[in-house]
Amino acid sequence: MEIKHQMIGTTLLFKCHDPVFNEVSVIQYKRNLATLIEKNNIQDIILDVENIRIADNFGLGALLFARRYTRANNNRCILAMPRPKLVSLLKTAKLAESFTIIDRREEFQAYLKMLVEKQDQEKAEREAEKARKAEEASKAAEEAKKAEEAKKSEETPKTEEPARSGGAEQPVAPEEPETPAEVKKQRRHYSRKPRNNNHSET
């Protein structure tokens, strides 16, 4: 039995290509479906059964295998494009209400289109969120770098600037005090009386 599948977001599209759905084909169907359920985060399952012309009780049991999985997770199992004979068999077995049935091609294509658009939107939102977080991380790293540079600048001691030549006044050194001998000499100099050259003759 040829089976193809496609993941659209969290929805599994499972297509059966062979016209006969009996005991032999059911084994491969269940094996493939179980593997996909194990490997993927699957919510809803779409069984495209348009090509199935002949189905027996084993085939119905295989369809219920997918339905049990979705019901256990409160999700939907959709039968897409079933032929009237298969729908009649489901109604006879009182299983038609166990599935969501889409029997019109236009409705099925519109539903698939909606799933693809939803998947693209969710992907765009994830990428936008990823870009936002990357930008925030970059800003945080830049702020941390600036803070580290400012901290290093504050810790570095400042060197004194050399004295400028030219306009600035240079300090004047104080005069050394006079020695006692120099003071005594100066006193003698000032205590001498000037000679009187205009003395009268006797």
Q: Radius of gyration, rounded?
A: 52 Å
Q: Main sheet?
A: 5 strands, mixed
**What does the average pLDDT come to?**
82
Structural class, by secondary structure, is: alpha/beta
Strand content: 5-15%
CATH-derived architecture of one domain: 2-Layer Sandwich
The coarse overall form would be rod-shaped
Distance between the termini: 172 Å
CATH class categorisation of one domain:
Alpha Beta
Q: Could you spell the SSE succession in H and E letters? A: EEEHEEHEHEHH
Helix-residue proportion = 40-55%
**Major sheet: arrangement of strands:** 1-2-4-6-7
Count, helices: 5
The CATH homologous superfamily of one domain is termed STAS domain
Q: What is the fold-level CATH name, i.e. the topology of one domain?
A: Transcription Regulator spoIIAA
Enumerate the spans where pLDDT stays under 50 for 5 or more consecutive residues.
none
The overall strand count is 7
